[in-house]
Amino acid sequence: MRKNIVAGNWKMNKTLQEGVALATELKNALATKPNCEVVIGTPFIHLATVSELLKGSCIEVAAENCANKASGAYTGEVSAAMVASTGATYCILGHSERRAYYGETYEILKDKVLLALENNLKPIFCIGEVKEEREANKQNEVVKAQLEGSVFNLSAEDFGKLVLAYEPVWAIGTGLTASPEQAQEIHAYIRSLVSDKYGKEVAENCSILYGGSCNGKNAAGLFANADIDGGLIGGAALKCEDFKAIIDAF
Ligand code: PGA
């Protein structure tokens, strides 16, 4: 059966020292194994130190991005192989901030997903509509195009290694959360798309996380739904007690 996962996304926050302090606090707070898988997504420079620090703990580490090229003359980029060499096991890809601010197209993301998989990283692939699209009731079309554009080229075996994260852009960092009903409705739709493409078993095994102003207060209501298998957490992942409260929702 699919896993429940709570994944943090630190974004561009925390110096190395602050990140080490937060990871240490989390490790101590989660000394008793929680009822879900826990992942923290950190900036590239934290990955090696944080992965080493969390070795043997129940917390997995994710990069927030990787390059769309394997290696070579791409100044400033960080490859999937480099990410994997730090001990990180996941890679967040297709986050709406990457799509909006760094021009990440379906094609670029397709390459990133392939490279992450080739390097044994599990992609947390983000999809979701912007406010205008939700207002025009186009959210289903949008997530379908995002899946078709970047991940429905994969074999069933490779698709099975992905975690999906539905993140309505209007809910990210805004304090506006999708209601549990709104989230469940589109999560069920996303799972039906996976089922149509790869069959029922792959769909049933696919973890679909919700992201967008998820916090200790609303997490339990969201996670109680049949098709919501956890959360991708931004703001509330930056403080140990806030993040722990979300984990404790399971
Ligand atoms: P938020 O961010 O929890 O701060 O809304 C979620 C995300 O962007 O992954």
SSE inventory with pairings:
Layout (H helix, E strand, L loop, with lengths): L4 E5 L6 H14 L7 E6 L4 H7 L5 E5 L16 H6 L4 E4 L2 H6 L4 H13 L3 E6 L3 H5 L3 H12 L5 H4 L3 E4 L13 H19 L1 H6 L2 E4 L7 H5 L6 E4 L6 H8 L3
Parallel strand pairs: 1-2, 1-8, 2-3, 3-4, 4-5, 5-6, 6-7, 7-8
Helix pairs in contact: 7-9
Bound molecules: 2-phosphoglycolic acid.
Summarize, please:
The protein has 250 residues and is α/β, with parallel strands linked by helices. The protein contains twelve helices and eight strands. It binds 2-phosphoglycolic acid.
Please give a handful of descriptors for the protein shown.
250 residues, alpha/beta, TIM Barrel, 12 helices, 8 strands, 42% helix, binds 2-phosphoglycolic acid
Overall description:
The chain contains twelve helices and eight strands. It is 42% helix and 15% strand. The radius of gyration is 17 Å and the shape is globular. The model has no long low-confidence stretch (mean pLDDT 97). The protein has helices at residues 16-29, 47-53, 80-85, 96-101, 106-118, 131-135, 139-150, 156-159, 180-198, 200-205, 219-223, 240-247, and strands at 5-9, 37-42, 59-63, 90-93, 122-127, 163-166, 208-211, 230-233. The protein is of the alpha/beta class. An eight-stranded parallel β-barrel has the order 1-2-3-4-5-6-7-8, surrounded by six helices. The chain has a single domain, classed as Aldolase class I (TIM Barrel). Helix 7 (139-150) packs parallel to helix 9 (180-198). Bound molecules: 2-phosphoglycolic acid (PGA). 2-phosphoglycolic acid binds at residues 9, 167, 172-173, 211-214, 232-236.
